[in-house]
Recover the amino acids of this structure.
């Protein structure tokens, strides 16, 4: 029974990776609809654009996608709640400017990653045709976990990805590793950052490479934002 439940959970996570969903979202979150803007979402949920940008790590608020899930209330135990009411009651442009400057200082990704493989980046992220980055190297090159977490998928059931692993790092972040020659970990296994989890290969690909994706709340995001410079 437990194995079946785990399979169902993994299947749902794979679906999240493949595309943003359309179902209900948890309290404090909002699913972007056609015609929405960050300004409109903030206004209708009685918060500020600066808060929505900070809570969701949005470098470009104009780049939201239909189906994307956004946090519209401050995380638990966050002082951001005060920002919401304070910004609404602010009576001076100077106060607003200070709040915006502070939010921009705090804005940033919520997970720190290491490079999942050595090699050359042959394709970058564009959010449309490329949902991640492609790293090329020789077959068998070690693929490592970009951050600690739990393996929630290990298999080749998602067309176009070949032998793939998905690691869940927390309730918001997933990373995916595709086209591997061999998978060295199993579903349900806990892995540590930097631990080898696969060997680079060319399954479902026309060349040997690792396709690496980062997903935040189900939405593809540029891995370069989270990876250290080389």
């Amino acid at each position: 029974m437990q194995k079946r439940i785990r399979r169902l959970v993994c299947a749902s996570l794979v679906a999240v990776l493949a595309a943003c969903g359309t179902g209900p979202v948890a309290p404090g979150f909002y699913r972007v609809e056609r015609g929405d803007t960050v300004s409109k979402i903030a206004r209708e949920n009685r918060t500020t654009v600066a808060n929505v940008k900070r809570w969701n790590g949005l470098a470009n608020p104009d780049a939201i996608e239909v189906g994307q899930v956004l946090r519209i209330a401050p995380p638990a135990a966050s002082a951001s709640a005060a920002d919401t009411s304070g910004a609404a009651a602010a009576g001076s442009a100077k106060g607003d400017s200070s709040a915006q400057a502070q939010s921009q200082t705090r804005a940033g990704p919520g997970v720190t990653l290491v490079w999942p493989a050595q090699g050359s980046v042959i394709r970058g992220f564009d959010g449309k045709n490329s949902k991640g980055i492609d790293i090329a190297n020789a077959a068998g090159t070690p693929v490592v976990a970009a951050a600690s977490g739990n393996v929630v998928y290990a298999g080749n059931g998602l067309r176009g990805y070949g032998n793939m692993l998905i690691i869940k790092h927390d309730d918001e972040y997933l990373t995916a590793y595709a086209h591997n020659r061999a998978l060295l970990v199993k579903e349900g296994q806990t892995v540590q950052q930097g631990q080898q989890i696969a060997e680079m290969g060319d399954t479902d690909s026309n060349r040997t490479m690792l396709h690496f994706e980062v997903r935040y709340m189900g939405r593809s995001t540029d891995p370069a934002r989270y990876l250290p410079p080389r």
Remarks:
- Confidence is low (pLDDT under 50) at residues 18-22, 77-108.
- The chain has two domains: 32-106, 120-225.
- The CA atoms of residues 33 and 66 lie 5 Å apart.
